[in-house]
Amino acid sequence: MRGYLIFDLEVTDPAAWEEYRRVAGPIMAASGGRFLVGSQRIEPLEGDWRPASISVVEFPSFEAAHRFYHSEEYQRTIPLRQRAARGHGILVGSTPPEETPKT
Fold it and tell me: What is the pTM of this model?
């Protein structure tokens, strides 16, 4: 089962956001994370959800994503991200369709 960090973010300070990406990116990569989605365009279809942007980062496992997010090194970057943007994030465990065993 892979781990996916999914964030709905509105960048409020572009300079701080670039600094956050510069600092957090190598930590994420060292933990096995890779960006799958960095939205450029969003079209709301149902409900009241109107995110400014969506990011999806895939990790080799749910546990790897959990360790990354809760690591001391990444935790030190969270205040910078919170200064740069506001939003919501979740951790999802899922098996990609191409890896689902055939019955």
Answer: 0.87
Q: How far apart are CA 16 and CA 18, in angstroms?
A: 5
For residue range 10-44, list pLDDT tens digits in order: 999 999 999 999 999 999 999 999 999 999 999 99
* DSSP string for residues in 42-64: ----SSS---S-EEEEEESSHHH
Dihedral angle over CA of 42, 46, 51, 57, nearest 10: -70
**Cross-sheet strand order for the sheet of 34-38:** 34-38, 54-59, 2-11, 85-94
